[in-house]
Automatic annotation (TrEMBL):
Family: Belongs to the drug/metabolite transporter (DMT) superfamily. Plant drug/metabolite exporter (P-DME) (TC 2.A.7.4) family.
Top-level taxon of the source organism: Eukaryota
Pfam family, one: EamA
Lineage: Eukaryota, Viridiplantae, Streptophyta, Embryophyta, Tracheophyta
Protein name stated in the entry: WAT1-related protein
Keyword hit for Repressor: no
InterPro entries reported in the protein's UniProt record: EamA_dom, EmrE-like, WAT1-related
GO molecular function: transmembrane transporter activity
UniProt KW Transmembrane keyword: yes
Protein localization: Membrane
Organism whose genome encodes this protein: Rosa chinensis (China rose)
Domain EamA: 101-204
Amino acid sequence: MFMGLIRRAKLVLAVILVQLGYAGLSIISMFSLKKGMSPSTFIVYRMAIATIVLAPFAFILERNSRPPMTWSIIAKIMLLSLFDPAIILRSYPCQLSLTAMICFWGMVEGAILAFVVERGQSGVWSIQFNIKLVAAFYGAMQSVVAYYVMGMVVKEKGPVFYSAFNPLATVMVAILGSFVLAEQLYLGSVIGAAVIIIGLYLILWGKAKDQSPPSQC
């Protein structure tokens, strides 16, 4: 019982930290976009760095447990890299390898989109050691951590548990924006944040009740 509570607390903390990371990514992305970075190339660089960082670990640590790759799984990864990469874990349970492949196909698909959207604008691919590179590297690390945590949490608690925390990033962005970007925090934002937090608590409470052992007669 106690160990179960500890495990649940770790999962909750991990998801909250992921949402905090997304909030930070939103802030740093605003700075990089104001400096002229293209949203399309930002995604490409973000996914490319994530792939380069994660692929060696996935190759080494999961080389003996990685299931064979099939065209069906590749198609799922290509599709889900555009949307939600969690629910494929049943078909391909190696989380590191799965995360690396999601980042790789996200890079490929992002590059295709960028070449179409930014056609003839070769300058958008220029990147130096400045806020643009920092944003790309931060975004890459956030993708790696977020996809890995998503897989771990969804595998154990289900997609509803993970998705319930997504609005927290919006709340955190509003709070961070008021400090970092000196944006005004309106009463409506405060009320919305309170509603989100209360709703999150109710969802977690409901999930805990669902998973509690049945009472003995």
